[in-house]
Specification:
2 domains; homodimer; six-stranded mixed β-sheet; 8 helices
């Protein structure tokens, strides 16, 4: 991961493309990454289609961001294919990871409350991750997150279920990002101005921006 | 515009990248396009940066979707640069469009309630659109939408303010899309099943999908 702190989010899921699901995950991630001093430059949303995910990962890796954060496609069903796509993109095998298997097993032990259960193919799938990847503990769901460091870009795969995505990000991803970016902060100041139209304010802002180019000034019309 | 009905959305705005704004526009557009029988294949969100918008438009045009719908960047301020980016991408000039100027002027006449006002550079900017483009009436705001038909792909530029985006889509874009796609419909059926985990249901769904590959089946765990 480079120290520049430039991030790409890839949101994966057919439900995003039909409008069934609102992509609140990417807004939450943008806020958190911005607060950590990082900068999200691109968000790409695509459906559950293996070849599309592989192509998108390749294209976004070519831009060499510090990290790519994916959401969605880590679950047990046939159309959860994010990890297979990551493995293909990096040219590595998928393999059952002992720590990941332990994490998944522990969650099902809690769900079944001590009763017997099978580690079915679908459950083992969630512990089968690209070679060289590290599983990230999911404290509120079954599918672990996954972190893979490549030369330029770290690939961080999180579940699409918001509570699980947030818990893994806060528990495992934030410390990782802070370790690279260091102790940066995002500062923002809001000025409320009344009874003026955006088009009237525009030349004033343009002049301010030309005088202080380091500061980003943006008007948000409310009425 | 091709009849395949495959769409790309490009959401433009720094506020999306910092997480200040939730991208509810793209969900709304996905729902509407899906209902019209179209299919949104990609959503790309980027900041207000001219070169980034131009590169993204080029990359997405290379995929030859039926249409690219952009939201944001049509307003009067210095960082509203969608139309300049579209003009550069297509290699055409920006020019003041008489119908667009009439639309903008009419809105300011309503806002100023008959009092005198200036068509400032910032206000004329909203009527300055790529050569060959058609302005789309904005019944609830000042910046018109813009439609440009290229050989493979129609480019449709809508404002980022949700009410304006929706009004232009319903008034001008829906009829345009229907004219191409024809009278298709999206059909969806929800089955609620209780007391079963997604990982237990997964092999059943896999079998169903292999028997009826034309139908897309997806489980959405609720607990």
């Amino acid at each position: 991961m480079s120290r520049e702190g430039f991030f790409t989010i890839i949101s994966i899921g057919n439900a995003l493309m039909t409008g069934r699901t609102l992509n609140s995950n990417s807004q939450w991630l943008c806020k958190r990454i911005t607060d950590l001093g990082g900068s999200v430059r691109r968000i790409v949303c695509i459906g559950d289609h293996l070849q599309t995910i592989v192509e998108t990962l390749r294209e976004e890796m070519d831009r060499a961001p510090s990290a790519i954060v994916t959401t969605g496609g880590l679950g047990p069903t046939f159309d959860d294919m994010t990890l297979e796509a990551v493995a293909r993109t990096l040219g590595v095998e998928l393999q059952l990871h002992p720590d990941a298997e332990r994490m998944v097993r522990r969650r099902y032990q809690m769900i079944f409350e001590g009763k017997e259960f099978q580690m079915t193919a679908e459950r083992l799938k969630m512990a089968t991750i690209p070679k060289g990847a590290r599983p990230l503990e999911n404290p509120v769901g079954t599918a672990p997150g996954v972190l893979i460091e490549t030369k330029a870009t770290a690939i961080i795969c999180l579940p699409g279920v918001p509570d699980e995505m947030k818990a893994i990000f806060e528990g495992s991803v934030e410390p990782f990002i802070k370790g690279y970016i260091g102790d940066l902060r995002f500062a923002e100041l809001n000025l409320e101005v009344f009874d003026i139209m955006e088009s009237t304010l525009a030349p004033v802002i343009r002049e301010a921006v030309s005088k202080i180019p380091q500061v980003y000034v943006k008007s948000h019309p409310l009425g």
